[in-house]
Amino acid sequence: MKLHTDEQTIDDLRIFSKRDVAGIYDIYNHTHTRGGENHLQEMFRHPLSDREGINTRSSVIRAFAQLDLAFPFNASLFDMAEKYLAHSGHQPGKGEQGQLSEKDVQNGVTAVIELMQLMHSFIESPSVVKIEAYSHERKLIADLLCDPAFGPVMRENLKGKLPYSAVAAFDQLLRIRESARLEKLLSYLYSLDVYLSIAKVANTRKFIFPIALEKGTARIHIKGVYHPAVQNPITNDVTMDASQSVIFLTGANMAGKSTFLRSLSTAVFLAHMGFPVAAAFMEFSVMDGIYTTINLPDNLGIGASHFYAEVLRVRKVAAELKSGKSLFIVFDELFRGTNVKDAHEATVAVTQSFASRTSSLFIISSHIVEAGEDLRQQSNAGFLFLPTRMNGHTPEYTYKLERGITEDRHGMIIIRNEGILDILQNGKK
C-alpha cells in the first residue's frame, strides 16, 4: 500500500533538488548503481502506508547499519551487465551502433556471472543469514540463484578468460533464455544497493529508525526532531494523538515556524518510507496520506489568486478527509492571501472542522493570534509557539517550542532596524 501525497507536498518538503538547491533525496542518495539510484527515487515518490512493509524495510536497513557492510560489488560490473542485458533476445551484431559487439557479449557474460557468484556469497554470509527481516527477500534471491538452470554459472571459475564456446553457451542461457529472471535478480541487487546506502547515511549522520504503529491510532511521538539539511540544529519534541490532534502554532516572522513544519513533515514522510530520520526517537501511527501547504504559489495558469489557491487546497484536503482517510495535514499561515478579518474567521472555522476528524492529525500555523484564542475551547487542540527574545532593539530567536500562544509582534522593529523608513524619507546615504 502506498502513502497518498502530491507534488505540492513533494515541493514543500524539497524532497528533490530544485534550481541547484539540494533536496532530501540528495542527502540519502549514496547508491553505487544507476538502477539503485532509480529505485531510490521511486521509493521517495511512493512512500508506504502499511505497518508491516514499513517496519520490515526499516528493520532490514537497521540490521545492515549495525553490520556496517560495504557495497560488495564493483559498479563497473553493473555497467557491463546492464548494457548486455538491455539487448535481451537479440543475437550479437558486428559492432553496428546500438548492437552488441562480440567484446560486449564477452564482457557482459563475465560481468553477469561474477555478479551472480558475488551475490550468492553475500546472501550466504553468516551475518546476512541472521537478518530475520531480510529472510524473505534473501530466500527469493537464493531460490533464483540455486535454480538448476544456473548451475553452470555458479560452478564457473572466472580466473581465466572464458573461451569463445563457453561465452556463446552462456550468452544463450543468460541473455536469450533466462533474461527475465536476470532482470529480477538485478532488481534485488538494486534494492540491496539502496539498503546499504541508507544504512550508511544512518551511521554517518546518527539518524534513528522510527517505530510504525497501527493505522488509525492517530499518534506521533517524536523527540529531538530537526531538519536533516540544517547544520548545528536546534531540536524539538512533539506529541500528537486523539487528545491533541490539532496543533495551532504561532510565532513572529523569522522565528522558525516554516523550518519546524518542514522538519516534522519530512520526518513523517521519511518514516513512511521505512527510512531513518533526523531525531532522537520517533514512533508514529501509519497514515493514509500526508499533505502540506508551506509554500503555495499563485496559480497563474487558471488566473487564481493566492487566496483562491489556498481555498482550492483546503477543498482538496476536505475531499480526502471526507473519504475516510487518516491524514497528516500541515498548513503554514492558513489564508494569508486575504484580509485579516476573513482570514481570522476562516482559520477558526476550518480548524474547528479539522478538529472533528480525530483519526487525522493537523498542524496549523498562523500570525493571527486572536484565532488561537477562539480555538481554546476546542478540547483536542494544542497550542505551541516559537518565541522571540528582545536584546535591546534586536530580536533573537530560540527556535525552541513552548506551550501557549505568542504575543510577539516584531515586524515594525525589523523594518526600523533595517532603516527602511529613513531611506524612504531621506534617501540612502
Overview of the molecule:
With 429 residues, the protein is of the alpha/beta class. The protein has two domains: 51-205, no CATH class; 215-426, Rossmann fold (3-Layer(aba) Sandwich), CATH 3.40.50.300. It has 17 helices and twelve strands.
Number of discrete domains? 2
CATH hierarchy: architecture of the largest domain: 3-Layer(aba) Sandwich
Q: In whole angstroms, how far apart are the ends?
A: 62 Å
CATH topology of the largest domain: Rossmann fold
CATH class of the largest domain: Alpha Beta
Strand order of the largest sheet: 6-7-8-4-9-12
Percent in helix: 40-55%
Oligomer: single chain
Strand content: 5-15%
Largest beta-sheet characterization = 6 strands, mixed
Helical segment count: 17
Write down how many β-strands occur, each being a DSSP E stretch of 2 or more residues.
12
User: Which structural category fits the helices and strands?
Assistant: alpha/beta
Average predicted confidence as pLDDT: 90
SSE inventory with pairings:
Elements lengths: L6 H6 L11 H5 L5 H12 L5 H17 L7 H11 L16 H22 L2 H4 L5 H11 L5 H5 L8 H14 L1 H27 L5 E3 L6 E6 L10 E5 L5 E6 L5 H15 L9 E5 L3 E5 L12 H17 L4 E5 L8 H16 L5 E5 L3 H6 L6 E6 L1 E4 L2 E4 L4 E2 L7 H7 L2 H7 L3
Parallel strand pairs: 1-5, 4-8, 4-9, 6-7, 7-8
Antiparallel strand pairs: 2-3, 2-5, 9-12, 10-11
Protein name: MutS-like protein
GO molecular function: ATP binding; ATP-dependent DNA damage sensor activity; mismatched DNA binding
Keywords: ATP-binding, DNA-binding, Nucleotide-binding
